[in-house]
Automatic annotation (TrEMBL):
Function according to Swiss-Prot or TrEMBL: Catalyzes the reduction of dTDP-6-deoxy-L-lyxo-4-hexulose to yield dTDP-L-rhamnose.
Name used for this protein in its record: dTDP-4-dehydrorhamnose reductase
Domain of life: Bacteria
GO cellular component terms, semicolon-separated: cytosol
Protein's pathway: Carbohydrate biosynthesis; dTDP-L-rhamnose biosynthesis
Domain RmlD-like substrate binding: 3-281
InterPro entries the record matches: dTDP_dehydrorham_reduct, NAD(P)-bd_dom_sf, RmlD-like-bd
Gene that specifies this protein: rmlD
């Protein structure tokens, strides 16, 4: 891989991905595009940029990520997460580039009791999940030999708003914090995901669906307690509440734990356990305190 194009390069994952590319003569040229330079809602612009830059691989970190806003503006979210991804896939097909599309556990209904395998039936319960599923289908349909759907979940990192950074801020400003304890997923560090995406782009991995989340599982409540513990604070200040106590416009799947068997196809191990990842990420999240 000589040329890597990253969309959404100023977002939390995009910025982590750009930063993770190693320096040196063998490193790929990184083409970092934000929305001002590459708007997925403008298909002609997308095609022009991809034809001009001729990347070997594209990692699409751009997307509509406001889950609750998507409930009221599904058409607008679909224009980015569905039609926009289709335009990008068509452009990649035009120049022969591989496309790595970032997706989500929200394509599932959340009723499972064991981790969802990569080939599990989908069934999103909110608008955001439906729009992301449309993007997945576009990639797999248009790029059967060069398309990759990389599902992740519960992302956190230093480069944007996320649950872990919110808990760090709340620990400093509130005596107690109420956190949902009946939604389960896999907290995933952007640093780990960025490294895995780069590795996938470097090797001749089989196309298809991959689940790129940390190992283990946690509730939001358990994650919040771990953050407090790492801060040196009393985790008892985190109080568990049911989902119904925190009403949101968009329904959240109760169970979003993903299976990782697909990595064997690429000859790669699954991403490490979420607790280990959080500790590795801690210096960039909280300045090494705790």
């Amino acid at each position: 891989m000589n040329r890597l194009l990253v969309t959404g390069a100023r977002g939390m994952l995009g910025s982590a991905l750009v930063a993770a590319v190693p320096a040196g003569p063998d490193a790929p040229d990184v083409l970092a595009f934000d929305r001002d330079r590459l708007d997925l809602c403008r298909p002609a612009e997308v095609l022009d940029v991809i034809r001009q830059e001729k990347p070997d691989a594209v990692v699409n970190c751009a997307g509509w990520t406001a889950v609750d806003d998507a409930e009221a503006r599904e058409a607008a979210a679909l224009a980015v997460n569905g039609a926009g991804v289709r335009a990008l896939a068509l452009a990649c097909a035009d120049v022969g580039a591989r496309l790595f599309q970032i997706s989500t556990d929200y394509v599932f209904d959340g009723t499972a009791t064991t981790p969802y395998p990569e080939d599990a039936p989908t069934g999103p319960v909110n608008a955001y999940g439906r729009t992301k599923l449309a993007g997945e289908r576009a990639v797999l349909e248009l790029l059967p030999a060069t398309g990759y759907v990389v599902r992740t979940a519960w992302l956190y990192g230093a480069g944007g708003r996320n649950f872990v950074r919110t808990m760090i801020a709340l620990e400093r400003t509130r005596d107690t914090v109420e956190v949902v304890d009946d939604q389960f997923g896999q907290p995933t560090w952007t640093g780990d995901l960025a490294a895995r995406l780069l590795r996938l782009a470097e090797i001749d991995a089989p196309p298809g669906v991959y689940h790129a989340t940390s190992g283990g599982r946690a509730s939001w409540y358990e994650l919040a307690r771990e953050v407090f513990t790492l801060l040196g604070a009393d985790p008892g200040r985190v109080r568990p509440v049911p989902t119904g106590a925190v009403p949101r416009p968009a329904t959240r799947p109760g169970y979003g734990v993903l299976g990782h068997d697909g990595w064997a196809r690429a000859g790669l191990p699954p991403i490490r356990h979420w607790r280990d990842a959080l500790r590795a990420a801690w210096p960039e999240l909280a300045g090494g305190t705790g």
